[in-house]
Task: structure prediction
Amino acid sequence: MIRAALVIMILLPLFIVKSLGAGDVKLISVIAIYLSIEKVLQIFITGIFLSLIPLTHTIITKQRMKNIRIPMAPCFTAAALLVCIKEVI
Result:
């Protein structure tokens, strides 16, 4: 529970400047309840890199970049699956 509160405090500035949504912060904090801080950091960084996939698609299709919003929850969920599968293998 303390890890989740720590993650919320760390990600709160990203929420305030609207880099992450409230759902993204809640998702990462729930993941922090079950996994260690090291795994949560791996998931966060992997999720950020996975978000480059839709961003690349947007750049290739030459859509407007001014108000683009990339949903991070699927990226964080896929990253959590990748990290957990890597642990099992």
Remarks:
- DSSP finds five helices and no strands in the chain.
- Residues 14 and 60 are 27 Å apart (CA to CA).
- The radius of gyration is 14 Å.
- The chain has one domain: 2-88.
